[in-house]
Specification:
2 domains, three-stranded antiparallel sheet, 26% strand, globular, JmjC_dom, tRNA binding, tRNA-yW synthesizing protein 5, Cupin_8
């Protein structure tokens, strides 16, 4: 969900990463496996350096809007109090009712990821060269139907 972070007291550093950098963040569910964004283990996470980092320092009284899908990492620079206010902007039935903070994937995205996992599991039944061929076809279909035009033009995949 969209999030408004209000820094009441103390100071906090916030590092943000755009949703377009998701492929470089080593995602596991709604979290990045890269826990130390200042000193990432580049042996384990070599593509992390390709993620565009946006950083700010919040002082008492500052408000920071964190849009849905933006990954963020916070570090308290002083003891303080911060308050998050979340709100939903998709239709109510898009969200998991048991997820008050909107950290879970929207229902349609969760179903799509489950279908992809089933498809990838099915590919494991094929010989390696067939897996490669049909895996590439799956990637092509995803690029054609899911990604924005600008992403496809970058030639990333």
């Amino acid at each position: 969900m969209d999030n408004l972070l209000a820094q009441v007291s103390g100071t906090k550093r916030v590092v943000l990463f755009s949703p377009q950098d998701a492929l470089h963040l080593y995602l596991s569910g709604d979290k990045s496996e890269v826990l130390d964004v200042d000193h990432p283990d580049l042996q384990r996470f070599p593509d992390f350096v390709r993620a565009g980092r946006h950083e700010c320092e919040l002082q008492p009284g500052d408000l920071l809007f964190i849009p849905a899908l933006w990954f963020h990492n916070t570090l308290a620079l002083q003891f303080g109090v911060g308050v998050n206010v979340f709100w939903r902007h998709l239709p109510a039935d898009s969200y998991d009712r048991k997820d008050p903070y909107g950290n879970k994937d929207p229902q349609a995205a969760a179903r799509a990821l489950q279908a992809l996992d089933r498809g990838l599991h099915a590919l494991e039944e094929l010989p390696a060269d067939y897996r490669d061929f049909y895996g590439r076809r799956m990637i092509q279909r995803i690029q054609q139907r899911a990604f924005s035009k600008g992403f496809r033009e970058t030639g990333f995949m």
